[in-house]
Amino acid sequence: MSIPSLNFKLDNNRIGWFVKFVNAVVIRCKPLDLDVFRLSCHKLCSRYEVHERDWICYAVNHNTQVLDLSLYGSMPCYIYTCTSLEELYLNYRNRYSSVQIVNLPNLRKLSISNIACQSYVKNLRSGCPILEFLRVDTFKFTDCVITDERLKYLAILKCKIQKEAQLFVSAPNLLSFSYEGELSLPCKTTLNMPSLSSTCLTSCDLSMIKCFEGMTSCLRFLTHVELLELHFEFCRHKELLTSDLSLELPIFPNLKNVTVAFCMFSCFQMVTCILKSSPNLEKLAILQNVCPAHGEEDEVEGSRKDIITNLSSAIVVSQCKKLEIVEVNYWGYDMMVQRLVDSLMDGSMVLKNLKIHLSKYNNEIKEKFCY
């Protein structure tokens, strides 16, 4: 007999009460096996560490299949030999955790956050023979090297790769790939993913020019994808007044769905380049991020008119004969959004089946308009 799940989360300062409550539940449930065990207690001090380890030991000894732990201290070593585990989520606040012996024969999904040790990820993966899903979050790498023929889903999020390092991923059976970080930092990027169908790239580069350079460097390895998401979070908008972006993207013959999310300031150039390279595109979504950022409100507002005046390119959708839907989602309807909509309308005259959807986000309420 088993129970579906036990979820414990300490979200206030009543630590003593929390410890007593969890102890009582665990005692009552000891005869039962577990499907899911979740424990989040970053605020739990070392005084109660023995209780914390007892709870995790209980989950391991009761054949739990999904283990989700968010702790301040290091993880007890016996979780790495829990043969019943199919999914493991580890969120540390101890940057120097280590692992030696790993035996997780049934683990298919692994998510790790807040670890600074590079060897930790490698050692942990070595004991997971059927791992298909890997997510690493908030890591710091000298080099980011992942080679695995079994992986199908890979996410590298909020990770910092040191300068002059490399980003190398070789996963021939990978279906989905997500990356979030400074794309301009790796001096060498190599992505070997011949089976990839879905990709999401989020650039956190402050420089728009370096952002596009890093994005272009990655895209040349991803020409066979069907779904592509590009998110830009740069903030140095003055570069648009002095720079002429000339992007050269490869042809994406299988690409059918594209989402581009940024602050509208350079969407004309980027989206036009994507359209030129995507002959079989069916859907395009343009999302306006919350803008501006990093205290640049006055700078952006003062240069807005200059940016619009200097925009010479227009988004031409007519070259994508299979394009049926274009969605524009914005936070504030301004001159940039108007210019974008006008450009799309002008370029869609020859596409009889094309529909343009204009959506406004306002405190989680979205108003939709169709053209």
Verbal overview:
The structure is a single chain. The chain has helices spanning 15-28, 49-61, 118-126, 208-219, 239-242, 267-276, 297-310, 335-347; strands at residues 2-9, 33-40, 66-70, 87-91, 109-115, 133-141, 144-147, 153-157, 160-161, 166-170, 176-181, 188-192, 198-203, 227-232, 257-262, 283-288, 325-330, 355-362, 365-370. It is α/β, with parallel strands linked by helices. The strands form 2 sheets. It has a 16-stranded mixed beta sheet that branches. It has a 3-stranded parallel beta sheet with strand order 7-10-12, with no helix packed on it. Strand 15 (257-262), helix 6 and strand 16 (283-288) form a beta-alpha-beta unit. The longest helix has 14 residues, at 15-28. The model is unreliable at 292-302 and 363-368 (pLDDT under 50).
User: Sheet bearing the most strands, described?
Assistant: 16 strands, mixed
Measure the end-to-end span: 57 Å
Radius of gyration: 24 Å
pLDDT averaged over residues: 80
Beta fraction of the residues?
Answer: 25-35%
Report the count of strand segments.
Answer: 19
Q: State the helical fraction.
A: 10-25%
Order of helices and strands: EHEHEEEHEEEEEEEEHEHEHEHEHEE
Secondary-structure-based class equals: alpha/beta
Approximate shape:
elongated
List the uncertain runs: 292-302, 363-368
Number of helices: 8
